[in-house]
UniProtKB/TrEMBL annotation, chains A, B:
Positions of the Aminotransferase class I/classII large domain: 110-347
Species for this entry: Pseudochelatococcus lubricantis
Name under which the protein is recorded: threonine-phosphate decarboxylase
Pathway: Cofactor biosynthesis; adenosylcobalamin biosynthesis
Superkingdom of origin organism: Bacteria
Alphabetical UniProt keywords: Cobalamin biosynthesis, Lyase, Pyridoxal phosphate
PANTHER family (alphabetical): HISTIDINOL-PHOSPHATE AMINOTRANSFERASE-RELATED, THREONINE-PHOSPHATE DECARBOXYLASE
Amino acid sequence: MTLQPPARPPIAENQPIDGHSPGIKETAAFADAVADHGGNLARARALFPDTPAPWLDLSTGINPHHYPLRALGAEVFARLPEEARCRELAALAATAYGAPGAAQTVPAAGTQLLLPLVAGLVPPGRAAVLSTSYAEHARAARLAGHAVTEAETLAELETADLAIVVNPNNPDGRVAAREDLAALGRRLSARGGLLVVDEAFMDVGPSGASVAGDVEAAGIVALRSFGKFFGLAGVRLGFALAPRELARRLSARLGPWAVSSPALEYGLAALGDADWQAEMRARLGGEAQRLDTLLAETGLPVAGGTSLFRYLDDVPAQEIFTALGRRGILVRAFEARPRALRLGLPADDSAFLRLADALRAWREGTRSI
Amino acid sequence: MTLQPPARPPIAENQPIDGHSPGIKETAAFADAVADHGGNLARARALFPDTPAPWLDLSTGINPHHYPLRALGAEVFARLPEEARCRELAALAATAYGAPGAAQTVPAAGTQLLLPLVAGLVPPGRAAVLSTSYAEHARAARLAGHAVTEAETLAELETADLAIVVNPNNPDGRVAAREDLAALGRRLSARGGLLVVDEAFMDVGPSGASVAGDVEAAGIVALRSFGKFFGLAGVRLGFALAPRELARRLSARLGPWAVSSPALEYGLAALGDADWQAEMRARLGGEAQRLDTLLAETGLPVAGGTSLFRYLDDVPAQEIFTALGRRGILVRAFEARPRALRLGLPADDSAFLRLADALRAWREGTRSI
């Protein structure tokens, strides 16, 4: 029997936390949580203080199977990162991502840090973000002095000074065609604007969809995240792929030693390991299918995503968030999408089992009402 | 017998590298090297290709005795840095440095990254740097849109929109009085300007000289470097201590996950270890004295510095740089100070012995001419 998703619960975001009514408290907790980024387990512990540890964190799109770590010698932490080693990393990343070369590749301590710098590459004007997507882009564009609007289609981005597309999109996994983005980039740059394509999840995106090879010719800045696909978000490493002159400006802003030595060493190892990357893509694809099957069995058909996260839309998000949270499972909810949830991949059989149990308990709870 | 420093050699910065004359090649090499930051061993290897490895790097002011490193679990590298852990680090750093509190303390992936952001806290205007100091300050101020001038005295800084003092100064170790800086900060902020005090080497500076406690009241931004005193430059960690509102603006620019997890973990361990800090200050003081004695015995009286580096002025810098470089010892030379050198501390007896041998060989070479 396939269950229909239960009806939408009321979400009373403005109700106070009075500490007496669990319902009100959890509603407020949900309202807090949706404003969060993923991965905030300290907040999760505060929201669900009675939940037994350890938490199962499915709130991010970070690969739960990290690239194998070799032990680093003390000298890696002690000495300044070597400039030559950073140039090696830029060259290797250019090859791995398909950018024109090291001169178009800027390593940084995470793409997050790059967002306001990239938004500042064009004079303050009107920024348009293809909606609804990663909230940090709008925030970064405002910091750089832009007035920010949301756009529903690529065509609407054409009149912006700064246009931002997340591709594949987070959280729904929507993919824009490479040729459309390249054309948009050329039109924007021809009149002094800039297209930014955030390819944070492109490592598991469709083959041939990346604009990495187009950045110079089409005047695009593409952002690549290291930590998500390689499962090493703690090291802080990301790249801007950009036309040579913009890459030079970004590098100047970051200054010397922009990337820590552990990030340099792990980046060089992982980006150079094409075999691991290919095997991991296949493995993540299989695990995403397994998650889809589990969700479908619970009456939750997957509406999109990438193989690093799955996206549920038009579901009782608050109710599922709370039911899972009480059982120590953190998923991602969204302020702008109150009926949506995003789930990262469970790391192993026991995590899949735990999620299955929690979803079954939620389903049985709703059925008994 | 005390030797006088040999006469100044000609420095022909504009001579071409022709590959035939070692003298000209090494002069050009020196011209390249002075534009470098410290710690660039790859450049040193290229300059002195016949030098046997390993190099002894005395070109930085980084403590050669790093804080003891505990092994970090894979989860430290795999998971996103936790926001709560970063707040703990801010609170601990505030206590360790004497800042008003966590609200005035901004952790970042190295102070280098903070320089243009701090310079951008005031609208583009006239920046003045107390000369001659760390070149990155002038570069960062220009990036933020300021016209940059050099000032010889604190008094000359009073008319600037952005005033920058490195205290203790790098490379000469000059120290400005805390009360003078606080007064300057108040006067600048009263008319919309800003005083930035780079306290990169204040961990080994005179007791009571830090303006960390004055940042809120005097409207100052102080910069603290983690990697230098704790000998962990590869992790990239630094702090801005700033009035609450400026700290908030800096944090917003950095965004979430501004500090890597290894930096968080080592920062929390080291900044909380007051015993190690006190013992290390005493140890470094002793080793700096030992280096002074060695240099004086070679006819090179030390003109200043801190206990993390010693400063030589009015010496045949190019000649010493080259003589040491041929023996695999890298020291710091300066574009703006062609008669000056800076030497970091040798790590141990064998490094002291190697430096002593190389200095003796240089001295005997000059005597035989």
